């Protein structure tokens, strides 16, 4: 269960704006990668009663419930960063993930003084930081970031579903499910597909791409 152990260690060392970072959307064949940055007020203790989990371990309904609580809570500052499929194709998914995290931090409107990154990489910024594999399962601020990023991206993909209904984005959110691969082979990629990804590359481009 995610907890405040890591944040508390850093708070005691004088870092008061500890920021948890997580992303959603590295694996999909379509749509953006979305990152969230979350700062929890070090003086807040009532959040300890909020038993959140990594977004992947929550039902859509539970994610929505936590999203509403987290994004409206006075002790939480948060920001969202988004990088489009076109940029992903230009700079690769790892660099796009880092860029999304940087954009999320800019949306915070206050400068973090320490970063906890879910993953095995660091960001090229002049800030102290620590990368933790599966931090969204251990660190409260990273788990909160995973929920905010996931709900935000799902909403984006639902909007894309209205524009490109034949692909079933409302069901798989762009991930390479059996249905998605089938529709991709049948219709070819649409504008939001990641052309640099192997599965998309393998699909024969239609003469008239969907606009």
How would you describe this structure in keywords?
40% helix, Nucleotidyltransferase, domain 5, 211 residues, alpha/beta, five-stranded mixed sheet
Question: Strands, helices and their partners?
Answer:
Layout (H helix, E strand, L loop, with lengths): L4 H8 L5 E7 L8 E8 L19 H13 L3 E8 L1 H7 L1 H14 L7 E5 L10 E4 L7 H24 L5 H4 L5 H10 L10 H5 L9
How would you characterize this protein structure?
The chain is an alpha/beta fold. The protein folds into 2 domains: 5-162, Ribonuclease H-like superfamily/Ribonuclease H (Nucleotidyltransferase, domain 5), CATH 3.30.420; 164-202, no CATH class. It has helices spanning 5-12, 60-72, 85-91, 93-106, 140-163, 169-172, 178-187, 198-202; strands at residues 18-24, 33-40, 76-83, 114-118, 129-132. A 5-stranded mixed β-sheet has the order 3-2-1-4-5. A hairpin with an 8-residue loop joins strand 1 and strand 2 (33-40). The chain is globular and about 55 Å long. The model is unreliable at 207-211 (pLDDT under 50).
| pLDDT averaged over residues | 92
> What name does CATH use for the topology of the largest domain?
Nucleotidyltransferase, domain 5
For this structure, what is the CATH homologous superfamily of the largest domain?
Answer: Ribonuclease H-like superfamily/Ribonuclease H
Going across the biggest sheet, name each strand in turn: 3-2-1-4-5
Structural class: alpha/beta
Low-confidence stretches are: 207-211
Query: What is the CATH class of the largest domain?
Result: Alpha Beta
- Report how far the terminal alpha carbons are from each other: 44 Å
Helix-strand topology string: HEEHEHHEEHHHH
Biggest sheet, in brief? 5 strands, mixed
What level of helicity do the residues show? 40-55%
Q: What is the architecture of the largest domain at the second tier of CATH? A: 2-Layer Sandwich
Total number of helical segments? 8
Please tally the β strands and state the result.
5
């Amino acid at each position: 269960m995610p907890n405040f152990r890591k944040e508390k260690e850093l708070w005691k060392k004088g870092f008061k704006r500890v920021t948890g970072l997580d992303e959603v959307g590295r694996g999909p064949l379509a749509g953006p990668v979305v990152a969230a940055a979350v700062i929890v007020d070090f003086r807040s203790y009532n959040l300890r009663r909020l038993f959140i989990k990594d977004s992947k371990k929550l039902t859509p309904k539970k994610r929505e419930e936590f999203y509403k609580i987290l994004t409206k809570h006075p002790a939480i500052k948060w920001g969202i960063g988004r990088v489009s499929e076109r940029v992903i194709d230009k700079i690769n998914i790892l660099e796009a993930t880092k860029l999304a995290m940087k954009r999320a931090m800019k949306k915070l409107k206050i400068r973090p003084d320490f970063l906890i990154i879910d993953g095995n990489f660091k960001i090229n910024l002049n800030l102290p930081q620590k990368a933790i594999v599966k931090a969204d399962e251990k660190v409260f601020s990273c788990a909160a970031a995973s929920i905010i990023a996931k709900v935000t991206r799902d909403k984006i993909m639902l909007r894309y579903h209205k524009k490109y209904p034949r692909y079933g984005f409302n069901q798989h959110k762009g991930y390479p499910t059996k249905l998605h691969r089938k529709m991709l082979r049948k219709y070819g990629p649409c504008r939001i597909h990641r052309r640099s990804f192997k599965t998309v590359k393998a699909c024969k481009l239609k003469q008239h791409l969907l606009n």
